[in-house]
């Protein structure tokens, strides 16, 4: 040994001090052989340079050379000029049971990006990922990296980058009518994390149930249930959430999608908005406003967010999941100020704060106008896709009634009473097209239907999907 006993390497956590006094070569060979057999050193893995490993272990380089040569002699490794010693491609490895991740996701009822046998995924909520503004994002990222400071890359404020919160306050105020200062905004990992934070604070306050729209997002209900909040259904009609029924529940919190109700597509009518906000203001109640796809509208005027009318009664949620990509995991939560301290503490406990660089890049896109230019481009693409799917449905399902076409990224096909929409969706699935039965998004009984997302596919593929749906019907 050339260094003190106990010297060690990060490589396989080897410690020469654990070796017998006169058996270093055998000890090292056994360690390497065992790691290969267990799969810790996969075939093709390059072993550390002999000089480097010897220095880390505090042993003679000749010991490492001899150990490597034994592996070569046993056919477990091979020496390559210029590449050092590499674990042999055919090295015997003790097989481990394979991990069937797709089965695990299925058993947990979690979504698969591309389910088996599906080539046309019309699930609602799947955006147009091909439209991601790569060039604009790259320009913004370069600009950010050119001036980012060390402090910007630290833990920072768990509520989010001040630059992004400032940009969001201005943009949401201008485009959605939101009334908020930068310090009112909490940057989170999408609407899903915003809901999780609200659920944690609500349950700590003793509010174990929320009113939800019916039909309404099954994903949101599952999220609530995970955080031990019980979803209580309130019916939706052609004017949106039935506020009289909400009042009858006796609950203090309601989650809804007023600008574009999921999945029916209706807009919360003005008289219902007034009734809802009066309900919320009367006894310090809370409306959670999920503004999930308000950027996408085609045949109607924009609908302002509820939050701008009653910022002390409404918690506003939004994200870039439908406008950029869900993989960005960037969203925002603007809650009444009496809730903000609890939410900030929950966010800090969850992850110490969202990733810094994507926040700074989004702030750059917002400040420079690139984000809004991207939205205009995407809106034109999605209008064409919606039109293609509508035309296909008129051709192949001429009697169908279609709702929710004026905005969003999905539409609803209503079916005659008595049709089993779950069985029908399964028949359609066997043609390679994935759709959601409306029953999936219900807790109460109601008419059947199919929910079809159209954002992820070009017009010709949507026309093909409509033809296959027609064949299944």
Automatic annotation (TrEMBL):
Gene3D superfamilies: Type I PLP-dependent aspartate aminotransferase-like (Major domain), Winged helix-like DNA-binding domain superfamily/Winged helix DNA-binding domain. SUPFAM superfamilies: PLP-dependent transferases, Winged helix' DNA-binding domain. Coiled coil: none annotated. PROSITE patterns: HTH_GNTR (PS50949). Residues 22-90 form the HTH gntR-type domain. It comes from the Bacteria. Keywords: DNA-binding, Pyridoxal phosphate, Transcription, Transcription regulation. SMART domains: HTH_GNTR (SM00345). InterPro entries: Aminotransferase_I/II_large, HTH_trans_reg/aminotransferase, PyrdxlP-dep_Trfase, PyrdxlP-dep_Trfase_major, Tscrpt_reg_HTH_GntR, WH-like_DNA-bd_sf, WH_DNA-bd_sf. CDD domains: AAT_like, WHTH_GntR. PANTHER family: HTH-TYPE TRANSCRIPTIONAL REGULATORY PROTEIN GABR. In the C-terminal section; belongs to the class-I pyridoxal-phosphate-dependent aminotransferase family. This is GntR family transcriptional regulator. It comes from Actinoplanes ianthinogenes.
